[in-house]
Amino acid sequence: MEARGLRYFVGFVVVIGLLILLIVLIFGGGDNKKVPQTTRTLSSYAAGNSQVSMTIDGKENSASEHRQVVIAVNPDRVLYEVKQGYNGSVIESHQFTNTTSAYTAFLLALEHANFNKVDTKHLDVDPRGYCPLGQRFIFELTDNGNKVSRDWWTTCNKPKTFLGDANTVITLFQAQVPGYHTLIDNVDF
Questions:
Q1: Hey, which of 20, 32, 144, 182 has its CA 20 to 30 A from 4?
Q2: Which fold has domain 42-184?
Q3: What is the pLDDT at residue 65?
């Protein structure tokens, strides 16, 4: 009789558990709607103290021949720099004035080119050494001096953390620099 009584007791507990589960599912626990995360749009940074930049890091070669080109854009200016070596010694620099309206339009264009689309599984991968005979493109967003994002893409195409339209984003950055194609002619990557 004890085994039979134990079976009844276990059955009773299971029935009570199922009833509780049913009540929870009916009255709110079964709603699988996720609360949407508020993601800040790229264009919302236009009014603040933000900056977007693209660094083109050339092929792996000697320190005297290695080149990087940096284009940094904020509401007030566009900066174009050519750096030599791996320590980032600036060998050429040009600044151009910018406006908040132009910066907003630029950020909207980057937004439509999926500037914020990234591979979150590989965010900590260091791009140095990848695509050693090609170029690495590093895209950054800072706000009030704090790094919001840093993603990269290579001409070898893999690996990468940047999943947006790289060709459009690169062209958009180049278009921010008056006379870009003349300036870049002097750079040997």
A1: 20
A2: Mago nashi protein (3.30.1560)
A3: 95
